[in-house]
Amino acid sequence: MRGHGFLLANYVPGHSVIHRAPLALKFLLVVGCGLASFLVVDWLVSAAVLAVMCGLYLLTGAGPRRLLGAIRPLLVVLLVIGLFQWWQLGGPTAARIVLNILVCVVAASLLTATTPMQRLLDGVVSLAMPFRRFGADPERFALTIGVMLRSIPYIAGAFADVRDSARARGLERNPRALVLPVFITTVAYARQTGEALAARGLGEAED
Fold it and tell me: Cβ(45)–Cβ(92) under 8 Å?
């Protein structure tokens, strides 16, 4: 199975200022960008914010290729959204919506590119800790996120491999040739993941 990225950049070791920044500050940056996407009404402001976020990302030493790799899976979706919004609400609004989505993606990629996975999951546990009094399990929540972040790239890679194989056989227009192998691969991966978690005593309901 080939390696495939998924929307967010993978961790890039480094010693930049952003790498050394507190995790809480990075979380706040992502949340702030998400809130700004609802508050900003001028596409020029959105473009300026996106330029700043891209500049911060490049300061990490990850390089423009990794940034493009995090954005590339969204390009077709963004094109569709942009055209639809342009048709419905006009060019400036369409540009603002697309740019705001990119701002959120780059901000999230900045977080994942400068934070090791284990530290990120530990941060999630810390954030969820106050909800323990309501019956929440922070460790289980972090485990779920970890499994999700590992599973989605695998499934995306499975789809890309099946699509390439179908194209080589001239079956790229046959939905069954695309969907069925991906479905079987995904189910097998889910079973393997569940068995691995059960073997370690993880993910089991407490009595």
Answer: no
